[in-house]
Amino acid sequence: MAKFLAFDLGAESGRAVVGHLDAGGLRLEEIHRFANGPVRVLDGLHWDVLRLWAEVKRGLGLAVQAHGADLLSVGLDTWGVDFGLLAADGTLLGNPYHYRDSRTDGMLERAFQVVPRAEIYERTGIQFMQINSLYQVLAMAQAGSPLLDAAETFLNMPDLFNYWLSGRQASEFTIATTSQCYDPRAGDWAREMLERLGIPAHIFGQIVAPGTVLAELRPALQEEVGSPALRVVAVGGHDTASAVAAVPAAGTDYIYLSSGTWSLMGVENREPVITRQSLAYDFTNEGGVNGTFRLLKNIMGLWLIQECRRDWARGGSAYSYDQLTEMAAAAPAFGPLVAVNDERFLPPGGMVGRIQGFCRDTGQAVPQTEGEVVRCVLESLALEYRWVAARLDELVGRPLPAIHIIGGGSQNKLLNQFAADATGRTVVAGPVEATAIGNVLVQAMALGHLAGLEEARALVRRSFDVESYEPQDTATWDEAYARYLDLRQKSTAL
Predict the structure, then answer these.
(1) Which residues contact residue 132 at a Cβ distance below 8 angstroms, ignoring those fewer than 6 apart?
(2) Which among 153, 173, 225, 333 counts the fewest CB atoms within 10 Å?
């Protein structure tokens, strides 16, 4: 049996998981789980990166205690776009900012004054979101940040942790593409564009492919946690890239939907799709494993529910996600809707009021109960999925009859059925731990235990259960979709 340690750090929580691979299939064992979230200080919203590093070391130590020399390697993935800056001696310059920090307000417009919007898309193939690394670094440059002046190296979050694990500074391909600083046609950072924007291009270093063995675990870290000399593998550093590697599909005629804080919905291609139409629809081309690109749309997914849940908890009503889904199922169907990517829903805090405000501003009934609010969000998400699915059919030039929903959001049976009904497509839900599974699969491929992505996905199909949903009341959803399209046009969407 081969054993691989996977760290998956998400916006709400992180986990350390050991993947057990043998002839019978793949099995996951959770070793450690910990909370994650932003911390607000005087200069803005940050990640508590040192606590996260302490949790990674804790998970590493627990995995070694449980499995010792049987562990072969370790891989780590995180959310996209955020980064740390290193000085020439490798020192981290300040706590990395959280992507929801307000310092990027207005930065897209500032960028377009120097490099036109169409040119940025032509160079990067990435959709326009103010959270992208490009606008975060631009905000630092515009503010004359001394941290940027002192920086020698830019590392996205998984690359930063990989550096602390291995001692090697490198930018993994899938996470680099989320930055909107990478040119997929050139296969390198978009250096000329960066310099025109006043961003020092020299801080962007070597790019490595997912599956690269970076080095062995640093000797000092081995001693600290009592670990053997595990190999540190650069997996699909962007959590969605790792998750998509675990889609249990055969063939290519399907849509993947990685459902969690964000809903990432798209298809897998061998080349980026950078056209006038993909620009008009604001679709993105992010890197995948095995030399693929993921043509997709970022949708502001279950973040809206997560934030509502926090609002209600602050008011003294602590609901589980299952309780909220049950309330939504009992609420009246096809009430008010929200354009889920409206920019008002990006910041944390006061989400219930934001949702009610959108409904009020667009002349709809205002949802009052918890169930009404959650149903409003879930139905709206399903209708956004319909819009994105139709655009994907158009961009790839063929119908895509199935949607594979993976990740934590695949546990929401109500949303899964809504997605099938709204889109008129078969929905296949699972596996839940797709990101950790994909992380393990890339390690296994890197060390020669799997031949490639096709074999890896066949392994997923025989190792993990999935659940299928067929479309039902599609006619009623057609009426709701017409209303949703009107609201979408009226919104200030990301």
Answers:
(1) 81, 126, 178, 179, 180
(2) 333
94-130 tens-digit pLDDT? 999 999 999 999 999 999 999 999 999 999 999 999 9
- Looking at residue 247, the DSSP 8-state letter turns out to be -
The residues, ordered by sequence, that sit 6+ positions from 202 with a Cβ below 8 Å of its Cβ are 152
Q: What span, in angstroms and rounded, lies between the C-alpha atoms of 32 and 152?
A: 33
Of 341, 9, 36, 302, which Cα lies nearest the Cα of 158?
A: 9
Please name which of 189, 170, 173, 192 lies closest in space to residue 181, comparing C-alpha atoms: 189
CB contact at 8 A, 200 and 151: yes
> In 3-state terms, what secondary structure has residue 431?
coil
Sheet hosting strand 13-22, strand order edge to edge: 25-35, 13-22, 2-9, 71-78, 231-234, 212-216
Please indicate whether residue 239 is annotated as part of the active site.
Answer: yes
pLDDT, tens digit (0-9, with 9 covering 90-100), for 276-325 = 999 999 999 999 999 999 999 999 999 999 999 999 999 999 999 999 99
- Residue where the block lists tokens 């997912």: 210
Q: 160 vs 137, 166, 214, 361, 367, CA distance in Å?
A: 16, 10, 13, 43, 43
Asked if 97 and 45 touch (Cβ cutoff 8 Å), the reply is yes
Q: Which helix (H) or strand (E) holds 215?
A: strand 212-216
How many angstroms separate the CA atoms of 395 and 267, rounded? Answer: 10
List, for residues 143-192, the tens digit of each pLDDT value: 999 999 999 999 999 999 999 999 999 999 999 999 999 999 999 999 99
Residue 163 tokens read as 């550096």
Query: Using CA atoms, how far apart are residues 118 and 116, in angstroms rounded to an integer?
Result: 6
Number of residues written out for the chain = 494
Cα 133 to Cα 137: distance, rounded to the nearest angstrom: 6
CB 318 within 8 A of CB 312: yes
Instruction: Give the dihedral sign, CA 74/80/86/92.
Output: negative
pTM for this predicted structure: 0.93
List the one residue out of 330, 419, 321, 340 whose CA is nearest residue 369. 330
Which of 239, 311, 342, 421 is catalytic? The answer is 239
